Amino acid sequence: MKELRIGQKTRIKFYVAEEGKLIEIDCIIREIEYDRLLLIFPHNKMNYAKYLKEGNEVEVNIYTPNGIKILQSMIINSPLDDDFVIEYDEDAQDLQSIQRREYVRIPMSLDIVILKAGSELPTKTVDIGGGGIKFAAKDEFLLGDIVNFRLNSSPGEFIDGKGRIINVQKFKNNSLYVMYFVDMTEWERDKIFKLIFKVEAGNIRYF
Fold it and tell me: What gap in Å lies between CA 102 and CA 68, rounded to an integer?
């Protein structure tokens, strides 16, 4: 990937079922090979290294002048093995270059109700962005499922929309789902952006 540079900032994301939340850790690119990156893992985050085992998949966000590159990667060497190495598909078709306004995703635990086949399934969000929502649930959803949702953005305020399930990660007691917005008014979408920006600015906290 021609956008990669030594010293570049990357952010790895992975879900820790024990804590029920998404973990985000900033790393620095130390070496670059064709389909592998050697990353400098921060010492103050070593308590999470035990979750980054060889063969596990993580999402890697790479910050470039043209936006943020997002790719799914596999861990080759754990940070516990000194050299933290990930492997990615150089020719992956689902590699995304996303503008910051669309990409920004913030860890947020909010009440959300997923409406499916006439049933209401209450759960919690893991993170929220301008393009979609990640949530954990015990209920079964399939890739491609279209669902309606109602997000409780603040006391007495709700955001309604429709989304498509585009990613599923299964765990022992529940699953983690990524839902991409497919039917949302600009009014509702702007409410999400305003919420994200408030959290980014540190005006409100949801964890």
Answer: 10
